[in-house]
Write a structure and sequence with these properties.
This protein is α/β, with parallel strands linked by helices. It has seven helices and 13 strands. Strand 2, helix 2 and strand 3 form a beta-alpha-beta unit. The structure holds S-adenosyl-L-homocysteine.
């Protein structure tokens, strides 16, 4: 397959849901692309354009999908690889880089660019106030790509050094148990009154935000559309009136011992 100078590959993220959380740059790329490549629900959220071809696939074939996109770009197509949220956060940018790393040398001279998007944890945090205001980490609970022992060890260490923790991919129909195991592990390390946030489908019509404590957190409220945020020892609630969920923030300052 010969490379043509007009081929191009954009790696984009459409944000957590609504169009107004999609960057203007991403909107412009979706208009310019001849081909969209991505997991079906993300691709189907993009506006339809006459002549634009959609290559939607299953969620578990990220590397194949990245290679397919690179092959099309090498053949002269203008391809957008579409993720939800930010493409660099548990999404397609890493798969595209991995495909280039292990792929033919010709892929290294292709015009490939990665464009930032709003990630789910940012949208969730904004709804609540500032729960990610202090040092935090993001952990994917999915063990499709790494052993559960690695996930558990990272959770344990993150809890021990008092990071605020954002959990992605907390549960799916194929993996209902992980979030139970994660809470059991965290309950052994962190205080029972630690703030826990379930931010489900943030920005979408079925959004549901729940603020609770580690002691009361009910894993049944968690599904694949949920980002779970677990506070650090200083994360605080500010109660509000009128049935609104409280504000939650993690202060930036920590007193010296
Ligand atoms: N690249 C995406 C994350 C992909 S992993 C991003 O930056 O947001 C998919 C996980 O993201 C889901 O299991 C869920 O944990 C989280 N997620 C995606 N959209 C969400 C939304 N609107 N509300 C809450 N969590 C969301």
């Amino acid at each position: 397959m010969s490379e043509t100078p007009n081929g191009r590959l954009w790696v984009i993220g459409t944000g957590p849901g609504p169009d107004h959380w999609m960057t203007p740059e991403t909107t412009a790329i979706l208009e310019a692309a001849t081909d969209l490549v991505g997991y079906l629900p993300y691709v189907s959220r993009c506006p339809e354009r006459p002549g634009q071809i959609r290559h939607a696939s299953d969620n578990r074939v990220e590397l194949d999908r990245a290679r397919h996109a690179l092959e099309m770009a090498a053949a002269g197509h203008r391809v957008a690889v579409v993720s939800g949220g930010d493409p660099g956060v548990f999404a397609m940018a890493a798969a595209v880089m991995e495909a280039i790393d292990h792929g033919p040398a010709t892929w290294r001279v292709l015009d490939v660019t990665v464009h930032p998007g709003v990630s789910a944890m940012q949208a969730a945090a904004a709804r609540l106030g500032a729960p990610l205001g202090a040092d935090f980490c993001a952990i994917s609970l999915s063990d499709n790509l790494k052993p559960w022992e690695v996930v558990a060890r990272r959770l344990e260490v993150a809890a021990m050094v008092d990071f605020v923790i954002a959990l992605y991919n907390p549960a799916s129909e194929a993996r209902p148990r992980q979030i139970y195991d994660a809470f059991a592990l965290l309950r052994g390390i962190k205080a029972p009154d630690t703030v826990v946030i379930f931010a489900r489908a943030v920005g979408r019509p079925d959004e549901r935000i729940t603020v609770t404590t580690l002691a009361d957190a009910d894993p049944r409220l968690v599904d694949m559309a949920t980002c779970v945020i677990i506070g650090n020892s200083a994360t605080r609630r500010i109660e509000r009136r009128g049935g609104q969920e409280p504000w939650v923030y993690s202060p930036r300052s920590i007193a010296a011992d």
